[in-house]
Structures are given as structure tokens and as C-alpha cells.
Design a protein that fits this description.
Immunoglobulin-like; six-stranded mixed beta sheet; EC 1.10.3.2; apoplast; binds CU-O-CU linkage; 539 residues; mainly beta; 39% strand; oxidoreductase
């Protein structure tokens, strides 16, 4: 194994999107940011230099961070922010995972522009467990906003504090032209094909040779949007999600939530022409925001014209059956070399309800009119990092009494759930669909889980477990909990530390759809997590 060294200068960079040039926070001047390449078992050293006026952290989304929680990145969970002018070196080893992951800022809304791909190739000398592609490409799906990040932060915070519900927020924001203006568009690899006439923005073009196979490493980096992805005239063979191999299957449409990654093989079997590639939004029910699908082009070499074959069949926004069919097709590869280690017994059987509702509490810390919660606890981030508090045994920062019997009314709190090291967990995530028609993409840090069951309506503890897939369920780090439905996951708490779990829709995270697990080996915290690096930022 190797040591891979990267340097991230986080800086303000003038960026042109949708015909206007604005400063955006970028890494090394790039949007999307640089791709990190490594092999499984490599050590990564990423030196992050904060040259902007905002506090900053970087998260390595999906990296298990075995005993190295200090490098995980969520602000006030595993570290204090890197302050303007400061530097922090993220140092971690890639253990027992390979595939596509990504990195992003993990504080406020900074990840809107601070993100990039993290490509983990198999151990040296090991082939992929599928026919090797001739070449590979990273495809980052995102949203370009015709505004700068500070507008975004200001209006979101203002909207959350002053408006009483999301619809008023969206409507008033649309009236002001911010932040949900209709000229906004999805992007593919940072480029939005112009819906206006700026000739500088031609959209991303992917050149292919007829007869060759390409692996697309697709990442949904959008703040709040679940997406369908497809290429006109071609089907795609899915081989991996969230850096775990799956049983390959062919599909016309990929469904991907914020936080998720999908590797799929494109066979350039049409010989000639240009074909549109598109990312279009999914929402269980239509809402009054109208983004245009992002498009890019697959360009066969030798094709003269630039006109592309368009779609006759882009999925409608509320194509729930299509999204469900895609998710149901995902099964772990579960081969001899890559077995699915699904916990067959359960030490902790948990049910977390989640949702978004009106905040009944007039004097709450966050002060917003809406609150989101797991088990009616709307999470408040502490003033120092939870991992610090855990490691150095600082009391008063968090409680470890996350409610098994949730309170009847929503309340705020920094409450964690304690798991014995190596214990097994079954967690049912139940959406209560109070006021939003969205799936909740729930992301767990530090450990992958197996998605053993999924359904609409309320989870039935008598009936549903008998249908769980305990043989080859998909293993991942982010799962979409269907609107008004549930998902059951299982995992082994084999990574000591403090691990954040949250909705990967920024608008929900912002109002408290978060919690954390503390995993402790019982021999005292100093025995479990490695000591903090010397340059760890302090609060
Ligand atoms: Cu991709 Cu906690 O984040």
C-alpha cells in the first residue's frame, strides 16, 4: 500500500454558471473539485488550507474511518471547524472498501460547491469482479444556482427563521428570485447545458469509441434533489453502489439520492451519433419548483454533426414505481471474495420515526418555525465536538439517552445512542410524512449498513421481518426512506467512535434531522479511538 498525498486549497473562485459570474468557494479553483484516486489499503493524507472567510470541514463520504474518527469531518461531531487561515491534515487509511465515494464540505451549506469524487481502485493486482471496462469517467450530478453561496446561506436561514412553512418559504423565495429561481438548473460535471444562450456553456461531452465499454462513476452531489439518470438509446449495467459490489443488472434508468454513488457500465454499441445524457428530478409528489433536467452528450468518435438524439421517455417527476423498481434490483454481489456479512442476530432492535413538522417550541435553541427529527428529538449540534467530549470524557456536551420511547411533542436535544463495540443493530427508519413529499436519504457515518427491508405505510413488527433479505441485501452508506414508508437496515457496530447519522437533504439536516451513535468498546474510550492528531482544530 501507498501513501497518497493531496493538497486542498479552499479558496474563493469566480465561476460562471447560467450566464453569470460569481465568486464560489472551491477547492484548488475547480468546480467540481479535484478527484482523489487511491487503491484499497492506501493511506491518504489530505492537507486542507482554509483560504476563505468561512469555517470549514471536509468529510470523506462513505469512508469507514476505522478508529480514525478525527478525520471523518462533520463539524461539531468529530472535529471543530478549520477556521479561516488554518490548516488541517486529514489522515486515514482505506480499509475493506473499493469503488466510488466522494468528499464534500460538512458545515452549513458549503458543500454546494465544495465537493469532488473519491475513486478507490481495488487492491493492487485484483481485478474488478465484472468484465473490465476499456475506460472510466466520473459523472457528478449537481445543481447550479444563479446566485452565490452567501445569498443561499442568508436566504435559507432567514426563510427558516421567518417563514412558517416550506411552501411559503418556496413561494416567497421564488418571488424574490432567490434562492429557488426557475433559471436554476441541474448540472453534469459542473456544466449546465444552457437553457439561456450563453455560448460558453456547452454542457459536458463524453467521447466514446464504438464497441468499447465505459464505467461511469456517478455521484449525486446535489444539496436536496433526488435524481433519475439516463442516456438516450443505451441501457446501463449497474455493478456497484456506495463502494460495494452488487449483482450486475441492466437498467434504462438509474435512481440516485443525494449522498449516493453508482457505478454503471455503458456499452458504446450504437456505432455513431450523439446521445443525450440527462439527470432529472424525482419527488414522490409534485411541488412548485420547476428545475429543468440537466443534459450532457455521449459523442461517438467520427460523428460529424453535433445534433444529439433526444429523449422520448424522460421519467416524470413522480415516477415512484421506476424509483422503487431500481432500488429493488440492488443486491449485494455476495461472492466468496466479497461476502455480504449481514448480522443474523440483533443486539439492539431500534425503530426511529422521522419527519419534518412545525416546531411547537417557542423558545427553542434553533428558533426556527419548522423542526425535523428522529424520534421527536430535533438534534442540536454542540459547541465542541462530540468526539472530543467522548474521548476526553467531558461531561455536559451530550447525553446518551436517545429515546427508545420518544417524547410526544418534538423537543430539541444533543442526545446520542450508545452501542457496545461489535454489537449488532437492526434499525427501522419510519417516515411519518408530516409535511413533505420527499424520500429521506439517510446517511450513516463510520459504518455501512445492509438494507434488509423496505415498504410503504407503517412498519409491522409482526409481519415485515419475515420478508427481510438476510442473504444478499445491498450494503451501502445512504438509503432513501420512502415518503410515508420505512426501511430496515442492519449493521455491526465494529468501529469505535462517534458516528453521525442524518438526512442528506441539506434543508432537513439544517433543522435537526440528525443524531449520532457512540460506539464504545467498554474498556474506556481511550482504548478504542486513536488519539487526536496534533493539528486537530480547537473550537
Ligand atoms: Cu455526505 Cu454527513 O455526509
Amino acid at each position: 500500500c501507498k501513501i497518497r498525498i493531496y493538497k486542498f486549497n479552499v479558496m474563493a473562485t469566480n465561476t460562471t454558471r447560467l450566464c453569470s459570474t460569481k465568486p464560489a468557494v472551491t477547492v484548488n479553483g475547480l468546480f467540481p473539485g479535484p478527484t482523489i484516486f487511491a487503491n484499497e489499503d492506501d493511506d491518504l493524507l489530505v492537507k486542507v488550507v482554509n483560504q476563505v472567510q468561512y469555517n470549514l470541514t471536509i468529510h470523506w463520504h462513505g469512508i469507514k474511518q476505522l478508529r480514525s474518527g478525527w478525520a471523518d469531518g462533520p463539524a461539531f461531531i468529530t472535529q471543530c471547524p478549520i477556521q479561516p487561515g488554518q490548516t488541517y491534515v486529514y489522515n486515514f487509511t482505506i480499509t475493506d472498501q473499493r469503488g466510488t465515494l466522494w468528499w464534500h464540505a460538512h458545515i452549513g451549506w458549503l458543500r454546494a460547491t465544495v465537493h469532488g469524487a473519491l475513486v478507490i481502485l481495488p487492491k493492487l493486482g485484483l481485478p474488478y469482479p465484472f468484465p473490465p471496462p476499456d475506460s472510466e469517467v466520473v459523472i457528478i450530478l449537481d445543481l447550479a444556482e444563479n446566485k452565490n453561496l452567501m445569498d443561499y446561506l442568508f436566504y435559507m436561514v432567514a426563510a427558516i427563521v421567518f417563514y412558517s412553512d416550506i411552501e411559503t418559504l418556496i413561494n416567497s423565495a421564488m418571488k424574490e428570485g432567490l434562492p429557488f429561481q426557475v433559471s436554476d438548473a441541474y448540472t453534469i460535471n459542473g456544466q449546465s447545458r444552457p437553457i439561456s444562450n450563453c455560448s460558453s456553456e456547452g454542457g459536458f461531452s463524453f467521447p466514446v469509441e464504438p464497441g468499447k465499454k465505459y464505467m461511469l462513476r456517478i455521484i449525486n452531489a446535489a444539496l436536496n434533489e433526488e435524481l433519475f439518470f439516463k442516456i438516450a438509446g443505451h441501457s446501463l449495467t449497474v455493478v456497484e453502489v456506495d463502494a460495494t459490489y452488487v449483482k450486475p443488472f441492466k437498467t434504462g434508468t438509474i435512481f440516485i439520492t443525494p449522498g449516493q454513488t453508482t457505478n454503471a457500465i455503458l456499452e458504446a454499441d450504437l456505432g455513431t451519433g450523439n446521445y443525450l445524457m440527462a439527470a432529472s428530478p424525482f419527488m414522490a409528489e409534485p411541488v412548485p419548483i420547476d428545475y429543468t433536467a440537466a443534459t450532457a452528450t455521449v459523442h461517438y468518435s467520427g460523428t460529424q454533426s453535433s445534433a444529439a438524439t433526444t429523449f422520448t421517455d424522460l421519467p416524470p417527476r413522480n415516477a415512484t414505481p421506476l424509483a422503487t423498481a431500481f432500488v429493488d434490483s440492488l443486491k449485494s454481489l455476495n461472492s466468496q471474495r466479497y461476502p455480504a456479512r449481514v448480522p443474523l442476530t440483533v443486539d439492539h432492535s431500534l425503530l426511529f420515526t422521522m419527519g419534518l413538522g412545525f416546531n411547537p417550541c417557542a423558545t427553542c435553541i434553533r428558533g426556527s418555525r419548522i423542526a425535523a427529527y428522529f424520534n421527536n428529538i430535533s438534534f442540536i449540534r454542540p459547541a465542541i465536538s462530540l468526539l472530543n467530549a467522548h474521548f476526553f470524557n467531558i461531561s455536559g456536551v451530550f447525553a446518551d439517552d436517545f429515546p427508545g420511547n420518544p417524547p410526544i411533542r418534538t423537543m430539541e436535544g444533543t442526545r446520542l445512542y450508545r452501542l457496545a463495540f461489535n454489537s449488532t443493530v437492526q434499525l427501522v427508519l419510519q417516515d411519518t410524512a408530516m409535511i413533505t413529499p420527499e424520500n429521506h436519504p439517510i446517511h450513516l457515518h463510520g459504518m455501512n449498513f445492509f438494507v434488509v427491508g423496505r415498504g410503504l405505510g407503517n412498519f409491522d413488527p409482526e409481519k415485515d421481518p419475515s420478508n427481510f433479505n438476510l442473504v444478499d441485501p445491498v450494503e451501502r452508506n445512504t438509503v432513501g426512506v420512502p415518503s410515508g414508508g420505512w426501511v430496515a437496515v442492519r449493521f455491526r457496530a465494529d468501529n469505535p467512535g462517534v458516528w453521525f447519522m442524518h438526512c442528506h437533504l441539506e434543508s432537513h439536516t439544517l433543522v435537526g434531522l440528525e443524531m449520532a451513535f457512540v460506539v464504545d468498546n467498554g474498556q474506556g474510550p481511550n482504548q478504542s479511538v486513536r488519539p487526536p492528531p496534533r493539528d486537530l482544530p480547537s473550537c
